[in-house]
Amino acid sequence: MNIRWIVAALAVVALAGVCVQLGRWQLHRLDERKARNTVTRTNLAARAAPIDQILGPPGVVGDQHAWRTVVLSGRYDASKQVVLKYRNVQDKPGFEIVTPLVLADGKAVLVDRGFLARQSSELMPLHVPAVPSGEVTVTGRLQRSERGGHTNGGTPDDGTARLINGPDYAKVLGLNLYDGYVTVDKQEPANDPAFSSFPGPEIDDGPHFFYALQWFFFALLALGGLVYFSRQQATAGKPAEQQPEAVERPEAHAGAPD
User: What Pfam families does UniProt report for this protein, alphabetically (predicted)?
Assistant: First the structure.
């Protein structure tokens, strides 16, 4: 067995190990998703409550608060409204309109008022429904601030942004904002009918289990191939069996001896 074969065998074993780890990672993600689904189901079933009772003084929407129903009362600040570009809801491209709602205690909440489907190839919505004047009561779902890694998509620029991020918006809008936002379920006065509502959360196990099976299968396939080719290599390395020499038989004479 030469050195090249040994190196190739070690590479296959390493590849199988990587596949096993990827399979375990998918199972870990499955456990995380199941835990998140449990929290989501609990929050969806919980009764609506004021935002300060749910979040407390920190004012940060965490994973444990996602999809919790809150009731907010205040006034919209239309002068600090932000248009979210490049959004997609149920495979439809469009825009979302985020308007700060200033509460009685002076703090503000970013409210995603709804989705406007894009018409043709417009870069901005042709018409943005006006905010109601006066006191507004919003019943909606809490969502975490969106984060885009190292991008600055959560910082409003000229009234537009790509993400909804409380701390980034606060720096530009000059408001004392909660870290997170609310999507509208119901509003009084009623929300403009031009807005499309948002779908609920996906509460399923996702594809993680089947992805894990695929990675484990790839690991078995790699190891099985290694065993097969090892046997082939071993067989090829054996000396060929000695074949018995053929005994030359004298040719029969055509005629009888004299």
Answer: SURF1
Task: Please list the alpha-helical segments (H only) found in 125-190.
Answer: 166-173
The radius of gyration computed from the CA coordinates of the chain, to the nearest angstrom, equals 34
Residue among 55, 52, 42, 48 at smallest CA distance from 71: 48
Beta-strand relationship, 92-103 and 160-161: unpaired
Contact 71, 53 (CB under 8 A): no
The two structure tokens encoding residue 48: 């609506």
- Higher pLDDT pick, 101 / 121: 101
Please state, as a whole number, how many other Cβ atoms lie within 10 Å of the Cβ of residue 204.
9
Q: Residue 41: what residue type?
A: R
User: Looking at this protein, which amino acid is placed at residue 127?
Assistant: H
Orientation angle between helical segments 3-45 and 208-237, nearest 10 degrees:
170
pLDDT digits (tens, 9 = 90+) for 8-46: 888 889 999 999 999 999 999 999 999 889 999 999 999
**124 burial type by CB count under 10 A (0-12 exposed, 13-18 middle, 19+ buried):** exposed
